[in-house]
């Protein structure tokens, strides 16, 4: 009798595993949502749900993403809006949105800066990386919206110009912030941004993200889907 029960369990186990797999796939959940919907899921599940494919930079030029625009026509373009939002000490706003004074914290390298000219506004997922990961198929207006995304505070970040330029268009397989204490936030936000725009990851990028996230809390991310 014991042998018969063992055999029955061994026959049922693979079927049960196969049946359970679809319910654990976050991609299936994401696909049931539409642009404008908000989803919340653990960051590691969000990473697992991103499509995986090799990247292609064919046809990319930076001007395919129109930036920096003044969407609300208040005289301050997207770059200035981010600097105003993220200022530790608010600067004075002069003619044509010239920023004087103020201070900022650059999370990538853990330093404070006291002049807007010392900062770049970084696209967390660089424009070239977005192109490689699916934006090459978008309409021009969609790329413009991506390049000027003020609706999700993770999309754009003010950091020291030197650190931003050392990052350039690299993904986390070849670059992570020098400030090691910020790396969990960085890769979590990277996954959130790619989830928001349903961008793909390449195999090396996914492996690097998974490796870093394995050392980080599996925090829930809440994302309003842009696509």
Distance between the termini: 56 Å
Major beta sheet summary = 2 strands, antiparallel
- The number of helical elements comes to 9
The percentage helix is 25-40%
**Strand fraction band?**
5-15%
The chain-level structural class is: alpha+beta
H and E order: HHEHHEEEEEHHEHHHE
User: What order do the strands of the largest sheet run in, or round the barrel if closed?
Assistant: 1-8
Report Rg.
Answer: 21 Å
Backbone shape: globular
- Outline the low-pLDDT stretches: 1-30
Total strands: the figure is 8
- Mean pLDDT level: 89
Describe the oligomeric state of these chains in a short phrase: single chain
Detail the topology: elements first, then pairings.
Layout: H1 2-20, H2 26-31, E1 38-42, H3 43-49, H4 78-86, E2 92-93, E3 99-100, E4 104-106, E5 111-113, E6 119-123, H5 127-132, H6 140-147, E7 156-160, H7 161-167, H8 183-197, H9 203-213, E8 220-224
Antiparallel strand pairs: 1-8, 2-3, 4-5, 6-7
Helix pairs in contact: 3-8
Notes on the structure:
The structure is a single chain. By secondary structure, the chain is an alpha+beta fold. 39% of the residues lie in helices and 13% in strands. It contains nine helices and eight strands. The chain has helices spanning 2-20, 26-31, 43-49, 78-86, 127-132, 140-147, 161-167, 183-197, 203-213; strands spanning 38-42, 92-93, 99-100, 104-106, 111-113, 119-123, 156-160, 220-224. The strands form four sheets. Strands 1-8 form a two-stranded antiparallel ribbon. Helix 3 crosses helix 8. The relative contact order is 0.18.
